UniProtKB/TrEMBL annotation:
Top-level lineage group: Bacteria
Cellular component, GO, one term: outer membrane-bounded periplasmic space
Record carries keyword Magnesium: no
Lineage per the UniProt record: Bacteria, Bacillati, Bacillota, Bacilli, Bacillales
Secretion signal, residue range per the UniProt entry: 1-24
Protein name according to UniProt: Extracellular solute-binding protein
Length: 347
């Protein structure tokens, strides 16, 4: 585990560290050699700590560089990067439940421009999935699918919902869990998707009905899937890998990809003015390599490198036909407003 330090940062702890001026010491992001050789890379990520630590260990095994992983929720990390804007501590930011937080950060001056050679020839949008930023501010490294987990001991695959409208069937009353959109980016994506497809008035009517179907709306994006695995709900809304990770642990849970649903890349970006830009670029290259993509696949994420086989039943080829076209500009303009309106209506 040479050089790998996974640091968990709560919102309060991050504020205290920033106020005390201690982050520079714990980030350890100064370059110790030309072109990043023998240097330290500082990675900010909200992804599972054990997962990101495994990625860091593999990178260190292949390169003469050390990696420090700093773990916190996406919003905490973004606020930290904004606070550090004049003296950046991170080199790379990876992950955040899809592209929306990255898109929101584009105009805030914290993202640099870099697209690995592996992705240089990708179209910006392929089959309704935005694969990378048009100005090189981020690139996707894996695929996330928003859909329905279900408990096979309580629901057969045949009777499980196949569309978002199916969730309103009276038979699911009191049997559904989904995350709280006022707190969860996963659920906010669900709300924004319905609004873009139905229009706001019809979408709010839809959610008034869906809320009545739910027995719980936890703040955590992964909690409904865990609730389904524990038999607390028949159906849960979440990302695909959440269900397949639970299934791999022997839990009673499986996953349905709705007929039309958000299918997103989960991106990585280089931090503007980071202390080790060359190392950061090499780490971004690594995340698209077969070595890193295999680790993602082993954690039941859908790899984006076609040479790596998914461990889940899902692949990019299988899910791209389900993808809806997300109006990113509309999302950026209305993201906070919609979350606040949800809170006012339902909490």
């Amino acid at each position: 585990m040479r050089g790998i330090h996974v640091r968990k940062i709560s919102g309060l702890a991050a504020s205290v560290l920033l106020a005390a001026g201690m982050l520079a010491g714990c980030a350890g992001g100064t370059s110790e050699g030309e072109n990043g050789k023998g240097s330290r890379i500082t990675l900010y990520s909200p992804e599972t700590p054990d997962f990101t630590k495994e990625l860091a260990m593999k990178y260190e095994e292949l390169n003469d560089e050390k990696v420090d992983v700093h773990y916190a929720g996406t919003n905490v990390l973004v606020n930290q990067m904004l606070a550090e804007k004049d003296n950046p501590k991170a080199d790379v930011w990876y992950g955040g439940g899809g592209i929306l937080p990255f898109e929101a950060a584009v105009e805030r001056g914290i993202l640099s421009n870099y697209i690995p050679d592996f992705a240089a020839d990708w179209d910006i949008v392929e089959n309704g999935i935005k694969m990378k930023h048009e100005d090189g501010k981020y690139v996707g490294v894996e695929i996330f699918v928003l859909g329905f987990s279900y408990n096979p001991e309580l629901v057969s695959e045949a009777e499980a919902p196949k569309t978002w409208e199916d969730l309103l069937d009276p038979k699911w009353e009191g049997k559904i869990q989904f995350p709280n959109p006022a707190a969860s980016g996963t659920a906010t994506l669900m709300v924004m998707d319905q609004m873009m497809r139905k229009g706001e008035d019809e979408a709010w009517k839809y959610f008034e009905k869906l809320v009545k179907q739910a027995n719980s709306m936890p703040d955590s994006g992964s909690a409904p899937t865990k609730g389904v695995a524990m038999g607390e709900a028949h159906i849960g809304i979440g990302f695909d890998f959440m269900a397949y990770e639970q299934k791999n642990k022997g839990e009673s849970v499986d996953f349905i990809v709705p007929d039309k649903t958000p299918v997103l890349v989960n991106p990585v970006t280089l931090i503007e003015g980071g202390p080790n830009a060359e190392g950061g670029k090499k780490f971004m290259d690594f995340l698209l390599s077969e070595d890193a993509q295999q680790i993602m696949a082993d954690w039941y994420h859908i790899p984006i490198n076609p040479n790596v086989e998914s461990k889940t039943p899902l692949t990019l080829e299988k899910v791209k036909a389900h993808a809806v076209d997300l109006d990113i500009d509309w999302v950026n303009e209305n993201y906070d407003r919609v979350r606040n309106e949800w809170k006012a209506k339902f909490q």
